[in-house]
Every structure is written in C-alpha cells, then in structure tokens.
C-alpha cells in the first residue's frame, strides 16, 4: 500500500491524499443524504427511503441493546460514525484510491472523537462534578489507573482499525499480484465483508465506551446516594 502523498499546501498545512479522500467521502455522504431525504413520504415510501429507515432502525436497535432509552441521544453521533467508517473502509475498492482508515492519522482522529464523546455524554448524563467523581471510585488510589485505561483504550481503538485496514489492503494487493486477475471476485468479497466487520467493531466499541462513561457516573451517583442515606436508615431503625 502506498503512503499518503502531499496533494497541495495551504500555508504551512500539507494536504495529503488521505485528507482529500476524506473530504470526498464527507461530500459524497452529505450530498447523498440530501438527495435521499428530500422527498420523504409517509404514505408511499420508496425503495431508498425503506432502505434508509431499515438502516436507521438497525442502528437504533443496536444502541438500545447497550443503552436502553438513549438511542435518540446517541443515534446522530454513533450512526454517523458507523456509516463514515464503513464507507471509508470500502473506499479502497475504488481504483487509484486508498482507504483513509488505512492511515493512522485518520484512525487517531476518529479515536480522539470517541474519547471526547465518552466524556461529553458522561457529563451530559449528570454533571461535571459527578462524572469526575467516578474516577475516584472506589478509591482515589485508582485514579492513575483510570486515566491510563482511558488513554490505552483510545490508542488501541486507533491502532486496531488502522492495522486491520492496512493489512487487508496489503493482503488483497499481494494476492492479486501473485494470482493476477484469476481471483478478483473472492478477494473483493473478502474486502467488503472485512471492511464492514471492522466498521461494525469500531462503532460498537465506541458505543460501549460511551455507555461505560454514562453508566459509571450513574453508578457512582447511586453509590453516594445510598451511603448518604444509610445513617438515616440506621437512625430511624433505632
């Protein structure tokens, strides 16, 4: 797989082929979403609308399975993340293009967005004080380990997607070089399946991390409430 090359420069910013491809994907998704949703109908939904509704319902069901009652809150971010990663992974099938997710800078940016979203949704679930308190639970001694865990899982999220997509493209290229054009269809099918699986894994891990951030501070808040009410119950019993 070829390394990303510089296409042009904006001042001191070097715009690489990965960035240009990512912009193209964003433009494609934006225009496609506008075209697909401009003539929605409740009475007579078309084939495209039915397919879109099925995809949205599938994502909602996945979110509900992890965080019941929170699909409305998480659907815009998690759904967009799933769709973008899936399309980015499949971009490698287009001649002369490479998957942006085969570049560590792209997967690092995606992992950083997930990192920020974990804390954003966690704080929104209650308050900043309550959310930060869960890092000190059950003991303040565990604070460094909580912080290390946050950083390590973010790094693992970026490296996992990058490594899988890069190795997938390299394996497909090597097989095609050795076997020529005798086995293009199986290789393409393998690429499509693996690209979709990796997108699903990335989105699912992001959802689990967000759920962990939202539920951990809720559990911490519930623990504090129970401990504060314990003396009252003891006094009332006596």
- Helix fraction by DSSP (H/I, runs of at least 4): over 70%
Derived from helix and strand composition plus strand pairing, the structural class reads mainly alpha
The number of E-state strands comes to 2
Spatial gap, N to C terminus: 74 Å
What global shape is seen? globular
Q: Using only CA atoms, what is the Rg?
A: 22 Å
Regions with pLDDT < 50 over 5+ consecutive residues?
Answer: 232-238
The H/E string reads: EEHHHHHHH
> Could you tell me the mean pLDDT?
82
Strand order in the largest sheet: 1-2
% residues in beta strands: under 5%
- Please report the number of helical segments: 7
Please give the largest β-sheet: 2 strands, antiparallel
* Chain oligomer state: single chain
Describe the structure.
The protein is mostly helical. It has a domain at 69-223. It is 76% helix and 4% strand. The chain has a two-stranded antiparallel sheet. α4 (104-125) packs antiparallel against α6 (143-179). It starts with 5 loop residues before the first strand and ends with a helix.
Summarize the structure.
The chain is mainly alpha-helical. The chain has helices spanning 17-37, 47-66, 71-90, 104-125, 128-133, 143-179, 184-237; strands at residues 6-10, 13-16. It has a domain at 69-223.
Can you lay out the helices and strands and say which pair or pack?
Blueprint: E1 6-10, E2 13-16, H1 17-37, H2 47-66, H3 71-90, H4 104-125, H5 128-133, H6 143-179, H7 184-237
Antiparallel strand pairs: 1-2
Helix pairs in contact: 2-3, 3-7, 4-6, 4-7, 6-7
